[in-house]
Batch of 2 targets.
Target 1
Amino acid sequence: MNVIAVFALILIVTMNVAIRIMKNKNSSRNAIFKLNSTSTKWLLIGYVAILGVFTIVAACISPKDPSYEKVAAEKIEQFVDFYPTLSQGNEEEVPAHLVEGKWSKKLVSNTFKIVNDNSYSLPLTLFVERVENTDGIMEASLYKGLDIINDYEVRDYMEDIELEWTDDKLTIKEKKNPPISLSFFHYDYLFKQLKEERANTLKHMSSHGPALYIKVPKSVALDIDENTVYVIVES
Amino acid sequence: MKFYEESDLPIYIQVAEWLENEILRGQFEPDDKIYSQYQLADLFTINPATAGKGLTILFDHDILYKKRGLGMFVTPHARSVILSKRKNEKLTLLVNGIVDEAERLEVPFDELIDMLKSAKMKTQGRDKND
Amino acid sequence: MSLNEVSLIDVVRKQVHFKWKSYTGIFQSLLILQILGLFISTLGEGSMSEPGYGRSISVQYYSSSILVGMTAMWLFINSMLLTTSAYREDDFTFVSTRWSRLLANFTFIISLALLGTVTSFLSMNVLKVYLFIKNDELILTNSLTFFETISSLVVLLSYLILICAAAYTIGSIIQRNKWVGFGLSMLLIVLGAISVDYEGTPINFLIYFIMFDSSLMLLLFKLSLANGFLFFISWMVSDNQEVRV
Amino acid sequence: MIECKKLSKKYRSHSALSNLNCTIQENTITGVIGRNGAGKTTFMKLIAGYLKKTSGELHVMEENPFTSLKVSANSIFIDDQMSLPTSLNLKELLNSFARFYPNWNEPLANELMTYFQLPQKAYMQNLSKGMRSTFQAIIGFAARCPLTIYDEPTTGMDAAVRKDFYRALLKDYLAFPRTILLSSHHLEEIENLLENVLIIHDQKAFMHLSVSELKESVVAVKGEKAAVNEFASMHNKLSINESFPGMAMAVVQVNNYIRRENFPHLTFSNLTANEAFIYLTDSREGGIDRVFERSELD
C-alpha cells in the first residue's frame, strides 16, 4: 500500500510546485545554473557514466554467499509453535526435532534455586511445573526456537543460551554475543509486481523464542530470584 | 548613389532621367545592353520593381528595345529621341515658367530676350575656356 | 521562389533534437532531484528492532521507492511545464504546427521517461554500494533475474510514461482554461489520497485495475491504452491553441 | 502567395481586424503600414499561423497557415518579442535555425555576425536592444524563407545600423528573391525598398498600392480660400486650414490625374509617402494643431 501513498504524495507535492512555476510566464524554462547546452550534455553523460560505474561496483561487491540464506520452506512447515502446548503442560505433543536437550537430576537437598545471570531479559521462556512424583527427580527439557525476519533465519537462539546445572541450582549464564544489525534492500514495489509474491512479503518477522520446561517435585522448595519471569504450569 | 530625396519626381522617373543622361553622355552606345533592373536596384538601393518601371518608361518612348531573356538594349536613334523629348517636354515647361515669371515682374518682352542672349554669351564663354 | 516540401516526421525529429539541446534546465533538475533522492534513500525507509530473547537485533530497511518517486516527480513537473506558453512560443519561433508540437512533446517526454527509468534504476546501485560499504550485512531481498529486471524496467518505464502523459494532459487543460485545469488536478489529488485509505472508491479500483496485474503483456496493453487516451485529450485540448497572443 | 477575403479577428474585448481583403503577390516586398493598434501585428501573426482567424478566408501558399506545416517551414516571423531559448548562445541559436530552415545560408550568417560585431558566444539576455534586433534581422536574412515577415525590425537600432539593415535587406532580396512583409513606423526610411504598401486602417486593408501611387494620390494645395475650397470640393478633402487671412492650405486626395496647369492660381506641392499616409489615415479633423487651438479657446 505504501506505493499508492507515495504516488499520492508525489502528486500533491508536484502539483503545487508545477502550478507555482507555471504562474510566472517565462521563468518556467530558465536553466538552474548557467550552463550552456554542451556542458549540460556532458554533465548528463558524466552522471550516467558514474551510475554505470556504481552498477558494476555493486555487481562485484555484492556478497556471493550472504551469511543469511532464505529459510527452507520445510523448516517453517515442521516448526510448531509449542507455547500453547507447553503452557498447558502437555510436553509430549512437541515434535521431537524441536527438542534441544533433556536433563534429569536427582535432587539432593530439598530446595532448588534458579538464578538468572543475564543482564538482559531471559534468553528463553521458563516453564515450571510442580509435579507429584515422589522419587525427588527433577526433569528439564529445552526446546529450540525459530527467529525469521523476511524469510531469513537471522540467528540460532541456542548460541545465546548457556545452562549451568549444579546439584541444587540452575544458572542461566550470559553469553556476550554482539548485537545483530541487519539491513534489507528491496526494489520498489513496481519491480516486484511481476513476481508471484504479490503480497508484500517484506517487513514481517516471526520469532518464536526457545523454552525451558522444568518439572520440579512439589516436595522441593523452589527459589527463583525475583526478576526472573516464569510461567507456572498447572497440569 | 543617393537620390535627391526632396525632389518632387517619383523615384522611377528620376531613374529614367538618370539613364537618359547616361545615354546622352555616351556611356551607352546604340545596341549596348543597359543596366538590368536588379543592377539599378543595387546601384540606387531601391526596389527592383521601381527600377523596372523606369526602364519601361524608356522602352515606351522607344529609347530602349527588349531582347527576350537578355534584357534591354539602347535603340540606334535613342539619343535623338531623348533630345526631342527633353526639348518639347522639359524645355517648354521651363520656358513657360520664365514667361509667367516675366509677366508677374512686368518685364517687357525684349528685355527678356536680352537677358537670354547674355545668359547664352556667358555659357559660350564658359564652354570656350573649358 | 520554390517552396520546400517538408515531411512531418522530419520536422518532429528536428523539434525533439532541438528540445534535447535547449532544455538544459530540465536535465539539470533531473540531476538535482535524483541526487537528493539518493541522500534521502540512504536514510532508510524504516527500522525495527526485535524484542525478546538474548541479544537484540536491529533491522534497517532500504528501498528504491524514494528514488523512483523523485524521478516521477521530476517527470511530472517538467511534463506539465512543457505546456506553458514560454516553451510553446519557443517551438513556434522555429518550424512547428500544433500537431507536430504535440508529437514532438510526447516523443520528448517518452525519451525523458526512458532517461528517468535508466538513471533511477542505475542510481539504485549507488545506494547498494553505499550500503555494502556502510554495514556488512546487507540482504537483497529480491534479486531479479536478467529477464525480470528487463520486464520490471519496462513496467517502470510505462508507469513513468503514464505519469508524463497525465501531467501533459493536465498542463494542456490548464493552459486552455486555468480553472478547469486546477479543479481537475485538485480532484485528482483528493481521489488519490482517498483511494489510499478507503478501498472501495472508483479511483482505487482504477488504480488496481491498471497497476495490479501480473501478466506483463496485459499490463503494457492497459498502460498504452491509457496513454493513448491521454494523448487524445491533449490533442483535443491543444489543437487550436494560439501563440503569441 | 497570400490571399485574404473578409478576414476578421475578434477578441473577447475588442476586434482587431474585420473584413480585411488583400492579395500579396509572390516575391514582392510589401510594407505593412498602420497606426498603433491598427491591427498590423495581428494581421502578420495570422499569416504566420500564430493566431487563428475568427472568420473569413486566409490562404498562404494556398494553405491555411494556422494548421499547415508547409507554411511554417517556408516562413519566418521576426519581431522584437521573438521567443528564443535562454539556454543557447548566439552560435547555437544560429545552428538551431540552420537545422530547421533548408535554405539557411551559413556563410552569410557568419559574415553578418562579424560585420555587426555580434559575439558568437554571447547570450540573448545580455545583448542590448539594438544588438538583439540586429541578431534577429540576421536570422531573417540567412533563413532565406520564401515568406519572411519583419514586424518593426529596426526597433532599438541606431541610424547607421538601420541604414545597413535596409541595404542588407535589399541586397539579400536581390540575391534571393522572396516575399517579404515589412512593417515599420518609419515609412520615409523604407519607402524606396518597398514595391507596394499595404495600409491597414480601422481594421481593414485601407489601401494597397505602390509607393509612387500613394504619393501621387495626395496633393497639398495653396491659394485663395475660395479657389482652394472649390478645388477641394471636386476631390476628397482630407484637411484644410487658413494659414493667414484670405489664404488657405488644403490636403486633398485626388481621385484622378489632375493637370496642374489648368489651375494657374493654385500652387501644388507633393507630400512624402509618410505625410500622405498620415493625412489619409488621420480621422481627427485638422490634426494636432487643431487640438491646441481648441484647448486655447476654452
Note: The two ends of chain B are 26 Å apart (CA to CA).
Target 2
Amino acid sequence: MMRTITFGEALREALHEEMERDDTVFVMGEDVITHGGPYKVTQGIAERFPGRIFETPIAEAGIVGVGVGAAMAGMHPVVEIMYLDFITCAMDEVVNQAAKMRYMTGGQASVPMVIRLPCGAGRLLAAQHSQIMESWFMHVPGVQVAVPSTPSDGKGLLKTAVRSPDPVLFFEYKRTYTSKGEVPEGEYTIPFGQADIKRDGEDATIVAVGPMVQKSLEAAVLLEDEGYDVEVVDPRTLSPLDTETICESVRRTGRAVVCGEDSSFAGSVSEIAAMIGENCFGDLKAPVVRIGSPHVPMPFSAALVKHVVPEVPNITAAVEQVIS
Amino acid sequence: MMRTITFGEALREALHEEMERDDTVFVMGEDVITHGGPYKVTQGIAERFPGRIFETPIAEAGIVGVGVGAAMAGMHPVVEIMYLDFITCAMDEVVNQAAKMRYMTGGQASVPMVIRLPCGAGRLLAAQHSQIMESWFMHVPGVQVAVPSTPSDGKGLLKTAVRSPDPVLFFEYKRTYTSKGEVPEGEYTIPFGQADIKRDGEDATIVAVGPMVQKSLEAAVLLEDEGYDVEVVDPRTLSPLDTETICESVRRTGRAVVCGEDSSFAGSVSEIAAMIGENCFGDLKAPVVRIGSPHVPMPFSAALVKHVVPEVPNITAAVEQVIS
Amino acid sequence: MSLSAELCRTMYKDMWRIRLFEEEANRQTNLGNVMGALHMYCGEEAVAVGVCSNLRKDDYVLGTHRSHGHCLAKGADSRQMMAELYGKATGTCAGKGGSMHIADFSLNMLGANGIVGAGIAPATGAALASKMRGTDQVAVCFFGDGAAARGTFHEGIGLGSLWKLPVVYVCENNQYQQWVPRMNVAVLDSVSDMAGAYAIPGVSVNGQDPIEVYEVAREAINRARSGGGPTLIEARTYRFYGHSLGDEQQYRTPEEVEAWRTDHDPIKTLRALMADRQWLTDQEDTAIQDEVKDEIANAVKFADESPFPDAAEVTTDVLAPAQEAG
Amino acid sequence: MSLSAELCRTMYKDMWRIRLFEEEANRQTNLGNVMGALHMYCGEEAVAVGVCSNLRKDDYVLGTHRSHGHCLAKGADSRQMMAELYGKATGTCAGKGGSMHIADFSLNMLGANGIVGAGIAPATGAALASKMRGTDQVAVCFFGDGAAARGTFHEGIGLGSLWKLPVVYVCENNQYQQWVPRMNVAVLDSVSDMAGAYAIPGVSVNGQDPIEVYEVAREAINRARSGGGPTLIEARTYRFYGHSLGDEQQYRTPEEVEAWRTDHDPIKTLRALMADRQWLTDQEDTAIQDEVKDEIANAVKFADESPFPDAAEVTTDVLAPAQEAG
Ligand SMILES: Cc1ncc(C[n+]2csc(CCOP(=O)(O)OP(=O)(O)O)c2C)c(N)n1
Ligand SMILES: Cc1ncc(C[n+]2csc(CCOP(=O)(O)OP(=O)(O)O)c2C)c(N)n1
Ligand SMILES: [Mg+2]
Ligand SMILES: [Mg+2]
C-alpha cells in the first residue's frame, strides 16, 4: 500500500524534490527559516539547501517584486506569503508586473515564480486572516491559479507550478495542511488545466473547489442513501480552467452544483456557473446552483463562523434542489 | 430643453455641489491641484474650496490609508487614483481596511470614502494603464461599486457616493469623460442598487456595464432593422446589484446578453450571467451569453487593441445568437 | 500633567490592568473560552501607558495585532474587551473582531489591526481630520519594529511629515518579528534613525521605563498638538511571552526572557521609583492590585455570562443599515 | 575604463542617439505614426549614458515610463525601438508594449515600466539572481524622484541593503513629478539623503554632467560588483520637454526651460570638455551627428516599412506557448 502523508508534508516533499532537481529554485518569505513558515512547509530547506532560502522582513511588495526580478533573470523563486490576505500588499507586483511582463515585452520575459498562499478559514483569525480571493487572480491574464484539494494533488501540482515558465498563484487552504492521503514517492507532476473526476456519478455534477472537494465527497455518500449518484469534479486549476471535463460531465448529468469556500458573489464559482450555463444550456435540466460563503467579511466568533463557511449540508441541500 | 454637458463636467459639478453642501468633504490625489487630475475633474476646487484639496506625492497606499483614517475620524474623503491600475498599490487599504472596518469593529466604524478610478481603454496606454477590474471589488464585501454610463448618472451616482457612509469604488471609464448628455442642474441623487432600463424591448435583454451601455443602445438600433426589439438594462452599481430589475427583464424577454468592456473570465459579467442562470432558468429560451474582452493584457498597438475592446458588432452578433 | 504621585499611581494601576487582563486571557485560552490568536503585550506595558497618559479622551489611537495594552491604556472597558476575546455579543466589537481588531470608537481608539503597518497611514489620516477641523486632537499610532520595513511606514510617515500633521508614530521595538530576531532581517538597529529620511525628529527611549516613555511622549504629543508636526519614537522593549500563544520560542533562550522579566519589568521599575519617593506604601500597592484583580474577575464573569451573537449578526455591519440615497 | 577620448566620443554619440531618436519620435507623434504616451528623456541623457557606460552587456538595467534613454544607452537597436513606438510587429516588444514597456532581454534590459517605483524591487531581484549564481553581474535601477515616495522604494532598497546585493539605485531627480514641482509634495530636497535609512552610501551628482555621472556611477558599480552592496545615487537633472507630449506645462515657465537648455545641456557640456581637451574636432562632431542622423532616419524607415502585428497576436505571449506539465 502507498504511504499516507499530510498535505503539508506533500508540499514540503515537492519543494525538496524540485530544489534537488533544479538549483535555480529557491525559497523566500517571512519566517521561512526559523519556523518553516506558519505551516512548516519550508522546514528543513535551510539545512539541506543552504543559501537557497531567504528569510525576509515584513515587506510583501518587496518580496514579490524581488521574486519578479529574480525570475526574469532566470531563477525560479517560490515565494511564501504568510497568509493570502497579505498579497493585497503586493498586488501591483503580481498583477502589473509578474502577470504582464511576458505580454508587454512581446514574449521576451519569462516570470517562473510560484506564490504560495495559505488561505481560507483557520483557527478563528477573523476578517484579515481568512480570505481566499481565487477569482481575483482568475481574472488576471498571465497568471495561473492552482487549488489542490488532496495531498497527492498538492505534490503534483506544486511540482508543475515550480516548473512553469509563468507565474502561479498556489492556494493552500489552511485547514487542509493536516489532512492525510496517499502520495506517491518521487517524481510525478499534474498538468495544469486538467480537472480530476474525484467520483463518478450519473445524476448530478458537483464542481468543487479546494476543501469543498472533500465535503462534496462526503455529501455524495449521504446522497447515495437518497438514491442519488453524484459526480464530483475537481478543477484543480482555476486558471487555466478545464471547461471540457466540466462540461462533458454536466452534459451527461444535466445538473450542476458549483461549490467553493469563498464568497460566491463574483467568486470563482460564478465563472464556472456562467461558463456551464453558456456551454451546456441545452442539456441542463435545472439551474446551475452556486454554493459559497455569504458576502460578508469573516467574523471572529465561532458562533458566527459556523454560519459562514459552507458545509456538507449546504451541498446536499443544493444537490437535492437541482435534482428535484 | 435641458443643458448638455460632458461626463467629466457632470462629475466636477457633483463634487463642487457636495463640497458646498458638506464641509467634511475633501479631495486628495496626485496632480489634483496643478492639473485637476489627468481628466480635470478636480479643476476649480483649489480656488473655490481652499484647504480642502490635497495634492499628494506618488504613494497610493499612503493616500488611501490616509483616507481611511480621515473617514473613520468623521471626514468624507474623495480620493482620486490617477488610473485604476494603480489601485493595485493600495489593495490592503481598500480590502482589509476600508471595506472591513465597519464589520470588524461590530458596526462602530464608518468609512465614508469615495475612491475615483479612471479606467478602461484610453489612448493606447497599454497593459498597465487600461485595466478595469470591477469584479475584484464586487467580490469584496463592505465596499460598493458604481459604474456610471452617462453624464447624468455620473452626477447622481457620485453625489450618492459622497454621501454614503461606506466606501465606494467609483469607476470612470476614460473614454466616457468627453461624452455628452443632458444633466439636470442642482440637486439630485441616484440610489445605489437601482438598475436603469435604458431602453425598453421585448425580444432580448442586454445587461450592459459602463461604456457598453452606449454601444448596446447603438446595437439595439441596428437590431431594430432586423426586426428585433431589444431591452437594455444598465445596473449602474455592480455592488449592490439590482438583481430584481435584471431578472424581471430577462424573465420577460427570455434571452440575455451580458456585456462588459473588461475581460469576461471571472469578470463582472460572469456574476451577472451566473445570477441570471440561477434565477431565470425556467424562462430562459437560450443560454446567457457574455461579451467582454479576451483574457489578455491590453496590448499597445492600435492594430491589436481594436481586436480587444468589444464593439457594437460583437453585441449584435451575440443578440442574434441568443434570439435565433 | 507633570510627574506626580497621582499620575504614577494611575500609570502603575494601568500597567497592572494590562498585565492581569492578559494573564487572565491567556488562562482562558487554555480553558478554551478565548479563541483565535492571542498576542500578549506583557512586558511592554510601559509603552502604551507612558504614551497614553498624555492623551486626551478625544485623541486618536491606532494599534496593531498586539493591542490589548493600547486599548486598556486608552481607557477601554476590560469587561467588553474580555467578552470580545470570548467572541460574545457584548464584546467591544460584538464578537466580530476578536483580539486583533478590538476598537472603541467612543474613546477614539480606532482599532487594533491584523495587518502589520496598516495603522500608520490611517493614523495620519485621523491627524489630517483633526488639522482640517482645527480641533487640536493628536493621533498616535503604535506599531512594531517589523512594520518599519513596510511601504506603509514610508508612505504614511512621508505624508504626515509633508503636511506637518499632529501625529506621533510610536514604534515598539521588541527585537522580534514573529519568530525572527529583528537583526536577522534589518540593517538599522534603531528604528528612530530612519526619522531623518522624513525630516522629522526621531528619538529612542527605554520602553521598560514608564516615566521615560511618558516624558518623551509628552514632548512629542505637545509638539504635535501645537502644530510642530510628527515625531518618530522608538521604544526599546521586550515581550515576556511568545509571538502568540503556542509559540515554542526556539529563537530565544528562556534565560534571556527570565533576565528581562527580572531586570526590566516596567511594573517593578515604576514600583521602585514610587517606593523611593514614598508615593506607594505596601498597603496601597496591595489595594491597587486587588482592585485590578476584581476588575479582571468581573471581566471574566461578564464574558462568561454574556450570550454569543445571534446567527443573524453574520450579515449585519457589512454596510451601514439604512443604505439610502440622498 | 577610465576617462579617454574614446569613451567620451561613445558617450557623446550615445547622448545624440537619445536626443535625436526622441525628437524624431516626437515628430512622428505629431504625424500620427507614433501613438500612446511619449515621455521625453531629452535633457537627462547624461544620466543614462554616464551610468550605462560602466556596464557590461550582461549587467541588468530596469527603467521607468521615461526609458528611451536607458534602452539606447544599454545598447538597444533604435530601429526596433522606433518600430515599437509605431506599434509594429518588428518592435522590441512586437508592438505589444509601446514606449512605456520597451525591453531588450538580449541586452539584459529588463524593461521600462509604467508603474512609478515598480522596477526597484525587481532590480534587487535581478541582483539577487546574480549573487546566487556568482556571476558578478550588477543590476541598475533607474527611477524618478517621484518614486522615492513609494513604498516599493523603501521595501526594495531595504532588501537590497539587507542582503548586500550588487545593485545600484539611480534616482533621476528632474524636480517634477508629472505636473507637480517636486518640492510641493516632498520634504527632502535631495533623495540621496534617504540612503541613511537603509545604511547604504548615498550620493548626489550633477546629472547634466556626463563625466561626473560616469565617475560616481563607476564607483558605485565597482562597489556593487565586488560585494560591497548597493548605493543610492541621486542625479540632479531636468527634462527639456513636458511630462508627456501635450503637456501644457503651466507648472513652470518657458524661461526656466530655456535656461536649462542653454546652460545645462549635457551634450553641450560634454562637447565643451572634449573640445577643451582636443578630443573632438568640428569635423568629427559633424561626422558623429551625421551618423546618428542616418541611424535615426533608418529607424524611421524601418518602422514605416514594417507590418502591423496580426490580429492573432492578441492572444499570444499571455503564457508561454507550450504550457506543458512535467
Ligand atoms: C502585512 C503583514 N505581513 C505579515 C503579517 C504576519 N505577522 C503578524 S505579526 C508579525 C510580526 C510583527 O512584528 P512586529 O511588527 O515587530 O510586531 P511584534 O509582533 O513584535 O509586536 C507578522 C510577520 C501580517 N500580519 N501583516
Ligand atoms: C504607482 C503610480 N502612480 C502614479 C502614476 C502616474 N504617473 C506616471 S509618471 C508620474 C510622475 C513620475 O514622476 P517621477 O518619478 O519624478 O518621474 P519623471 O516623470 O519626473 O521622470 C506619475 C504620477 C504611475 N505611473 N504609477
Ligand atoms: Mg517586534
Ligand atoms: Mg521627476
Note: The mean pLDDT of chain C is 97.
